[in-house]
Amino acid sequence: MPDTEKVCLVIGAGDDTGGAIARAFAREGLTACLVRRPARAEALEALAQSIREEGNKAVALPTDARDEEAMVALFEKVEAEIGPIDVVVFNIGANVRFSITETTARVYRKVWEMAAFAGFLTGREAAKHMLRRGRGTIIFTGATASVRGSNGFCAFAGAKHALRALAQSMARELGPKNIHVAHTIIDGAIDSNFIRENLPEVDKKREADALLNPEHIAQSYVMLHKQPRTAWTHELDLRPWKENW
Known about the structure:
Strand order of the largest sheet: 3-2-1-4-5-6-7
Mean pLDDT: 94
Largest sheet: 7 strands, parallel
Strand content: 15-25%
């Protein structure tokens, strides 16, 4: 595969932030390889098709990011059949809220698998391929819960803290080898389908620029990838101007 056909692999290419990130990198000339769980394969293909309709390149690759064998196969397939992976974005959320007494072992384990273990598999496989070329960008999407545990979010905060620690360790190991590892803290409500359906007065908040815009988040991800290595950012926090922090 020619080295000019560079790839951005988005793990967690959902309808909002993940989709916006995929579109942004596709507009930069990279082939957007989109990953979401197999149960959402139809929506994933619709996203890929919408990117192609804009004149850019996109491939839907439904995969369970918690499955080690499937993730190894995913990276090998992309590298062999589509192109060298230049950017990897891990964007799985797993945000749930339960009191500590209502948090079952199954819930805690599932959240950890989605937001932390899947991140580890993504980072490990990305590193294996990027190290051979001596370049690449790996971006992990964090949240407020990455740095602060809140009432009702023991599972989510635990997983996001673990993801942040993974990113820090990888950055220290891979940075000197010319691989840029970044962690973003998305602090605030994102203008997403979930927020539009559940947040009171969402239209007023949007008009006041009080919601995170997925397209603007995506612009920051592209900026991280384009940074010169003399001034790399490891951690970037993004929030609306009215957000309390």
